[in-house]
Amino acid sequence: MLFNSVSFLIFFPIVVMGYFIIPEKLKNHWLLIASYYFYMSWQPVYALLILFSTVTTFYCAVLIDKAKNEKQKKLFLAVNIIVNIAILGYFKYFNFIVDSLLAVFPSLGIARNNNLLAVVGISFYTFQSLGYSIDVYRGKVEREKDFLTYALFVSFFPQLVAGPIERSVNLLPQLHKTHKFEYDRVTDGLVLMAWGFFKKLVISDGAALIVNTVFNDVTKYTGIQLVMATFLFAFQIYCDFSGYSDIAIGAANVMGFKLMRNFRHPYFSQSVVEFWRNWHISLSGWFMDYVYFPLGGSRKGKIRTYINLMVTFLVSGLWHGASWNFVIWGGINGLYNVLHRVIFGKKEAQLRRMKKAGQTLPKTNPVIAAVKAAVTFVLIDFTWIFFRANTLTDAVYVLQNMFSDVSLLFTSGYLATALETIGYYANNGTAIMVCIVLMFAVELWEGKCELVDRINRCAKPVRWLFYYAVVLLILFFGYFGQSQFIYFQF
After folding, report:
1. Is residue 276 assigned to a domain?
2. What is the number of other CB atoms lying within 10 angstroms of the CB of residue 379?
């Protein structure tokens, strides 16, 4: 069930009303039923996979908790990780592995499974449930005694299929608390949902019409057309994914649950390292805690640190999709992070020492900050080419041809004609650009606090002006074709 569908507009109010009406002891049961219905609306068989993951990780935690020694704990954890990763690997990577092997060894007697299910959200709930069992092993959280409560933790519908990937220490305790109807909290949640719908329906889905026109047939286009499509994809994916996160966090907030923030103005970041602290925060944090630090983090010397970073980003790339495009995308971002440490590592270490000592840190010139943010955006947008291109060949074509018409840009009428060819004007390209600027303005205004907190500080007329503006923009410029969110495929 898509958030941007009529089905969800019916489903969500029914779930919320039921949640606040039914007796307290039945609330989690109600949400569990709703969550499984939500997930099964794609394919009923999906329920079997998420139930299997839930059962294995739940009873793994039981065995870890009751284990007599450290050796037994490690054994139970290892079996649990292997089983869940094997299932994830089969459904997500089997055909990729087969294709890669056949490309090197054509005579191998293996074949693709073209009937393999594309399981929505399997990476998200697998990582969330594995994170729980690892946290139990590490002693960060007590094992959950009630199976149904744990099942709700794994399947909680707002963040089930595209995150945020919640930690057990945050969400599980909330499932044991009483959540009453609070008008201010409900309205805050609805405002955040509306902002998420604006980003998804207006900016992301509008940009998608232009981006898909180009990237689905890249060899028809050159120069500024490829540049524009690449530029717009940066905002398509950001508004699609952060829009989903806003809707998920807002929907959970309506019912009284506080999910972690998943994006923090990533395109204002002044370095690639900072970008990855602000983009898909729940996944970045998951990889740091469960991959990078277990590999040794930065504790075993510079070379080992660089290797650990590269491994983490390569795994992150593969997590995003069964394609060499994603592996290359992850590898480039890993290389960015390694180079940043090589070039700026000593300076940043000095600043950390100054901060720890309570010393005043030097202020960054606003112009320099803007230049750094622009350079970071260009570096990140370069990697999005590999992320979006349908094949590695397409990505190479874009790189080879995106600056092929620089001399023609000064020819009268050329720019307008080139943009018209990719549907820029027919698909409200200018309106999308204005809305991107508006979104940036709101993020600047929001500052370091969360959007609803910033809005609540304003006078009532300003708040209502914001509400009406967002609703009108959605109604006038929104695309209501019920397009799927990009991260559902991961």
Report:
1. no
2. 15
479 close to 205: Cβ distance less than 8 angstroms: yes
Residues 175 and 153 sit within 8 Å (Cβ to Cβ): yes
The structural domain count of the chain equals 3
- 426: alpha, beta or left? (left if phi > 0; alpha if psi -120 to 50): alpha
Instruction: State the residue range of the domain holding 46.
Output: 6-181
Q: Select from 141, 160, 181 the last residue of a domain.
A: 181
Residue found under tokens 């019920």 = 482
Query: Which residues contact residue 476 at a Cβ distance below 8 angstroms, ignoring those fewer than 6 apart?
Result: none
C-alpha to C-alpha distance for 478 and 204, rounded to whole angstroms: 9
In single-letter form, the type of residue at position 482 comes to Q
Q: Judge if 354 and 381 occupy the same domain.
A: no
The answer on 388 and 349 residing in a single domain is: no
Q: Is the pTM of this model over 0.85?
A: yes
Task: Specify whether 56 is located in the same domain as 145.
Answer: yes
- Same domain membership, residue 392 and residue 333: no
Is 188 contained in some domain? yes
CB 67 within 8 A of CB 58: no
> Do 42 and 127 share a structural domain?
yes
- Using the Cα atoms of residue 478, residue 482, residue 483 and residue 486 in order, give the sign of their dihedral: positive
Do 144 and 69 lie in a common domain?
Answer: yes
For residue 288, the model assigns a pLDDT of 93
Exposure string over 70-108, b if 16+ CB within 10 A, otherwise e: eeebeebbeebbeebeebbeebbbebbeeeeeeeeeeee
Residue burial 400-418, b: 16+ Cβ < 10 Å; e: rest: ebbeebeeeeeeeeebeeb
**320 an active-site residue?**
yes
| 38, 1 contact by CB (below 8 A) | yes
pLDDT for res 490: 60
Cα–Cα distance for residue pair 420/411, rounded to 1 Å:
15
Q: Which of 176, 179, 265, 320 is catalytic?
A: 320
Q: Which of 324, 342, 363 is the last residue of a domain?
A: 363
Kindly give the residue spans of alpha helices, DSSP state H, lying in 67-109: 70-104
**Per-residue model confidence as pLDDT tens digits over 436-479:** 999 999 999 888 788 888 888 888 888 888 888 888 888 888 88
338 and 461 share a domain?
no
Q: Is the peptide bond before 164 cis (omega within 30 degrees of 0)?
A: yes
Other Cβ atoms less than 10 A from the Cβ of 276: the count is 23
Q: What is the amino acid identity at position 464? A: W
